[in-house]
Amino acid sequence: MKIIEHSYSADLSWVKHLANELGGKIDGNFILASENIQTGVRYFLEIEEGIVAYYIDAVYHKNLHLIQKNTQTDFIGLYYNLTDGEVSVTKKNHSYNVNRWNYNLSTIDGTLVTDYKVTAGSKTYALCIFIKKSIIESIAKANNITIRNLNRITDPKKNTIIRFDRMSNESYHLLKDLHKLKVGGPVFDLNLEGTVHMLLSNYLKKLSTNRIIIQTVNQADLNNIIAIQKYLVRNIDSHFPSIKLMAEMANMSESKFKSLFKKITGLTSNSFFMENKLLKAKELLENRELTITQISDQLHFTNNSYFTSKFKENFGLSPKTYVKKL
Q1: Short-list 88, 107, 101, CA closest to 163
Q2: What is the mean pLDDT of residues 86-106?
Q3: N or C, which terminus of the chain has less Cβ within 10 Å?
Q4: Domain architecture of the chain: domains with CATH
């Protein structure tokens, strides 16, 4: 296992050292790592003073142990991680699996030392946002978002921020849309900036509502709910299964299943299924291989009118208008 010791910060002072540790170099806004370690894209962009985005879309060819020790500590890192494979973050003797189906949103204080282990063969798609704590306060005030005890939250002498959570479906869809774009250049940079600001807005709304984080959920129950999410996505072309069936699969009562599913995902199971069905419909429209009627039939919508109304409700455009704008 290759060990890499590095740091991050809310400016670009960390980039050169990380590129060297990855056996690579910097080319514009790209970190070109050694192909013996990974292939793919590492892209960094200063969104504005005090906010930096780091975009990773890569396949790992070696087991890596990355030790993050920050020389600047006046920031927090938001790590949106949609990895397919074995990845874990260790902090304070606790290990958390971070990938699409487990903890896919980590918020980690810049003061903390973190161990990140990734297994060879893992495919990582992640967006990291490094933001100065003073900026969090100013963004909240500018957007009229009231957060209880904000001064305490952002004061490193009073609070150290660390939480492992699951991103909302809205955040997931934002990242999926960004993933479709060619990385680099003015168009990508503009979309990256917009995505970062939307994700920060979602994060601040979570803070303002004091949303319960999923560490309060029994690990076995969490694993069962994740299994149902996978089941729903795998069967997205089918009809919505019954609550009774899913509760039995999760080894829970129906009331417990409904409560925990919403607590963990922020959505009811029906809403989760419909949002992912509509996302699949959007991707099929973009491929231009099937007609609107064929897509409606393939995804088992009741009829074209229902498909059109749900699509417009979710994306603001009818399927026909959306195709015309592609």
Answers
A1: 107
A2: 63
A3: C
A4: 2-214 (2.60.120.810), 217-325 (1.10.10.60)
